[in-house]
Amino acid sequence: TGTETITQSGELVAHWMMDEGSGNILIDASGYSNDASTVASPPWVVGTSGMALQLNGRKQYATAPDNASLDITGPITLATWIKADARDHQYLLHKAKNNSVDGYELSLTRAGLILFRFNQATSGEDLRVNSSTLYPADGSTWIHVAATYDGTTARLYVNGVEDRTKILDSTPSINTNDLPLAIGAQHDGFRSFKGAMDDARVYNKALTAEEIYALASNQSASSLALTNQKEIKTFEKEDNLTVFPNPFDSDIKIDFKLLKESAYKVGLYNSKGDLIKELKKGRSEADIMNTIEFDGSDLPKGLYLVRLQTNKEIKTFKLIKR
Questions:
Q1: Of 162, 154, 133, 148, nearest to 204 (Cα)?
Q2: Are the C-beta atoms of residues 60 and 69 closer than 8 Å to each other?
Q3: CB-facing half-sphere around the CA of 243: CA atoms within 13 A
Q4: What phi, psi does 146 have (nearest 5°)?
Q5: DSSP sequence for 194-212
Q6: CB 135 within 8 A of CB 143
Q7: What is the mean predicted confidence (pLDDT) over 297-313?
Q8: If we measure between CA atoms, which residue out of 300, 308, 162 comes closest to residue 222?
Q9: Alpha-carbon distances of 115 from 110, 128, 142, 204, rounded to whole Å
Q10: 3-class DSSP string for 219-251
Q11: Residue 250: CB atoms within 10 Å
Q12: Which of 151, 152, 165, 171 is nearest to 212 (CA)?
């Protein structure tokens, strides 16, 4: 959960947090309703924050139906956490069809490289950038991978650091299609990923290096799951919000303090961003620890979000009921 001040400008069009813990739906927290359906019942495992989806490399994956918000023709960012179990040709985020339908993709190669590519069916490998870093495939190492395209330059990032850049000879647009966006494979299960995935995102802008670093540092809050505001800022690093235990079964304790005196309110939300309960509101002096205790035993299993909000800032914490 994020704590660095990062501005989100509303360009997050898909965000699968993968914290549901059960069922076959990955809720899209972006507000664009690009929920994805899993195929062949992949299980949930412990992720980088909360839960993650474990894929077996044998046609376990998920797909989000085609939507205008996913038919991106210009600047784009694809990002996700992965923990690979094997090196092979594997698709991570894929809205195209190999050799026949143009689109965009973030993928892995058998040689151990990460790649970003678009319009492969008509342009071959001209619009492709490979990483210089090899991805680990030991089944135990998480890495954050991201790709951006700003209309002229494609960039790959590994663990928040720019790894490879390619300046394109022209300024091509990404060709759209009516295919689903697939997570962990092609839409038909081709080149399935073997390993775990967490926090997959699609933006219709090229994030900056600072924003990519924030994602890879788990510093970007999930505030867009809760609001349609154009600009959201999370609290600074010195602010404190802790929730214990997490995951929880019944009783929950929330501790928080603010850097500056301010009015505040704390709410509990479901993964769709609907308010379940207002836990507390009031006014706090700076550097005073505030405590909330409540009984969550009657809540259904799954993902919840605790939101601490002042007049100008929001901090969000993911909470799992098991």
A1: 148
A2: no
A3: 28
A4: -150, 150
A5: EEEEEEEEEESS---HHHH
A6: yes
A7: 78
A8: 308
A9: 11, 7, 17, 19
A10: CCCCHHHCCCCCCECCCCCCCEEEEECCCECCE
A11: 12
A12: 165
Amino acid found at 260: K
With H, G, I as helix, E, B as strand and everything else as coil, classify residue 88. Answer: coil
Mean pLDDT of 73-94: 97
Can you point out the beta strands (E) in 57-89? 61-64, 76-84
Cα separation, 30 vs 223, whole angstroms: 9
Angle at 153 between CA 123 and CA 217, to 5 degrees: 120
Instruction: Assess contact for 204 and 13: CB atoms under 8 A.
Output: yes
The per-residue pLDDT for range 220-270, each reduced to its tens digit, is 333 323 332 222 233 333 346 788 887 788 999 998 888 888 888 898 987
Q: List all residues 6 or more positions away from 91 whose beta carbon is below 8 Å from its beta carbon.
A: 105, 107, 108, 182, 184, 185, 186, 190, 191, 192, 193
